[in-house]
Amino acid sequence: MQYTRRKATAIIGAGLGAPASIGSARAQNYPSQDVRAVCAFAPGSGADVLARSVVERLRPLMNRTIIVENKPGANGNIACEYVARSKPDGHTILLHAASATASNMYLYKKPPFDAVRDFQLAATINRQPYMVVIAANRPWKNLDELTAHLRERGDKASYGIANPMTAVLGETYKKAFDLKAVQVSYRSGPDGLNDLASGNLDFMTLDPVLAMAQAREGRVRILAASTKDRLSVVPNVPTLHEQGAKDVDIVGWWAAHVPAATPRPIVEQLGKWVTQVIEMPEMREFFAKIGGEPFVNSPDASQRLFVREVDVWKDYIRVAQIEPQ
Amino acid sequence: MDAFSNLATGFAAAASFQNLGFALIGCLLGTLIGVLPGIGPIPTIAMLLPITFGLDPLSSLIMLAGIYYGAQYGGSTTSILVNMPGEASSVVTCMDGYQMARKGRAGAALSVAALGSFFAGCVGTIFIAAFGPPLAALAQQFNSPDYFSLMLLGLLMAVVLAHGSVIKAIAMVIVGLLFGLVGTDVNSGAVRYTFGVSELWDGIDFLPMVIGMFGIVEIIRNLEEKEVDRTAISTKFRDLWPSASEFAQSWKPVLRGTAVGSILGILPGGGAVLAAFAAYTVEKKVAKDPSRFGKGAIEGVAGPESANNAAAQTSFIPLLTLGLPSNPIMALMMGAMMIQGIQPGAAVMTSRPDLFWGMVASMWIGNLMLVVINLPMIGIWVKLLSIPYRYLYPAILMFCVIGVYGTNANAVMMILTAVFAVFGYIMVRFGCEPAPMVLGFLLGPLMEENLRRSLVLSRGDPMIFLQRPISLTLLICALGLLLVIVLPNVRKSREIAFQEGG
Q1: ipTM rounded to 2 decimals
Q2: What ranges in chain A are assigned the alpha helix state H?
Q3: Are both A303 and A223 inside the same structural domain?
Q4: Do A195 and B457 touch (CB under 8 A)?
């Protein structure tokens, strides 16, 4: 029953109710023990680097040992379930893409957790665009020229993706311009780069870390970004939205998740600390390096975004014709 | 020469007192975790990543790289002594290394492995310095169809590996392929054969499989046999060192292994594993008497050990020159670089030459250190074998369990290990060897993925595999290898038929 109440408070956006009064006493000595920060990807992955960079700066603020625990697998479900079922006392935090937590609600028939019901976001961390890239040796200078080429090639055109986020970007782009390019899946972005360079793929949709690194190396060109408005990290890359794909607004954003029943004062306190970390200049610099920018929101605002994100994914999955597993 | 002046820069940076210290720490740690079954370099590097925040970038990379190739050295030690491969690339070393140990030649096997690895490491380092960028460009030429053909060739090699029946080897490769199908299919996103267990969504983990099928099965088999008096194993220096004839048998395999490993190491995905298997296949095929393989042939240790170490070195090439990680450990290194604010890629060479060449130079220094650390330790390792098995096996079993559980603290992994131990024991009883199965398991998913991807790219036209020169060449090699496998058998059966007829 408590879960339904949490959902209600989350949607209303006010942290009133019983948990707050119970927790107020505890919040003063929070954290009272070592903290576990759970990462849903393997050590050394981009996600892990991000999580560790945040944790490194959280440590002096929380004045406690924070252990990064990697719980990779099942597209984040294992980590999400683990944190959702952990003791709601703020000592187990999931540092994960909230957009991914949301998407798993529709990528799977029976997700082992309920994003909105089981989680409270303490703070958002960063946001990043996904990118449409072409091989550097291709002639197209902008998205229009690529679109014209794809239209001409019809279903002979191919494009590469590496995860649900990039799949959704590819499919929404196709839908916006009524294109017929065929999707080719890769285990990871780098796996597809050779096929892109040789011309087997006409374009790829990539995460910004890889896209920007490869653009710097001069092997790909970024033609468009997936967010509605240009982000400060790539001010010169036009968005799909401004180039005519009005419906495309795909943002990858990270947040600190705690179990929904976590006492309100603890959520607030954790949120303050996380926000303090991401406002550090060196973190802005770090986010820019991995293709994103700091994203500051209060627990309530974060949770509102989260509720909306879950909703949006219902459409995305349909557009991208992803079969829930 | 440009390469020489570059290397000089590198040595100047890497040979500082501090960096030598970190190289030593890395190598020692790597050897230690390599020797402990189950605890691989990936969790170790992951655990140490936070420490590297505070270090100078070059020092931290030197230490992490030291762990990586230290583990390659250490991994062969357990393979040889107790038939327990710590990681994919030392599975092959078990086959002849362990047999040598059973014959009392553990010292020789360990020395050859260490010396071969050192030589391969040196060559690998020179390779990176001299041909890094052009080799990376070569690796970039590999498209999906080429990968499929490469994997096909690799699977045929798996058949050659077996020293028993070819039919049983093929059966085991196929069993491995089937195990490889478990998990999420990359092309459709469908989850296959997981029976609702979410731990299986990413496929069966490698570690429970090898620890179960090699390590634990070996313990069961040893317990079946009456305990032999192990105190008699000699640890005199003369017996630890390879004999003159063993040296003579080893140097050519070391050269061939190094060549094979250096080339395959640069390919992303499965490169280092394929390298060890390919080197073993080459040795078995060029040997005058292939029947010695699997019974303690020193070539079967020298070739693969050199190959996996050469591959370990050259797998840095894609990361350093293209910013692309070729295996999970390289992905970790990439993470370490990014934490330090360095974007891996060709730009590192020009923007931070001290870092790039310092790392290259440290690889050579690290290899030298490893040989110095490892050769004197061989006596201790061999001495370990003289411990009565009733004391040794609980210790091994404990490390296995800790290792498997420790990687991601998951009870499902323990159950899998037990299942594979039982399955492996039954297979051994039937005379089916685990090595071809492991190769099938490792390469199968890559082959399937690339096959289907290629066919999507060609809209279903299989000619795509023949139109690309790389793919075509590899397929021709595969066909040749197939003939080499099949013909002797055909001839043999015809001979038998003639004899029966006559």
Answers
A1: 0.77
A2: 2-12, 18-28, 46-62, 77-84, 98-107, 115-118, 143-153, 164-177, 189-197, 208-216, 264-278, 281-289, 299-319
A3: no
A4: yes
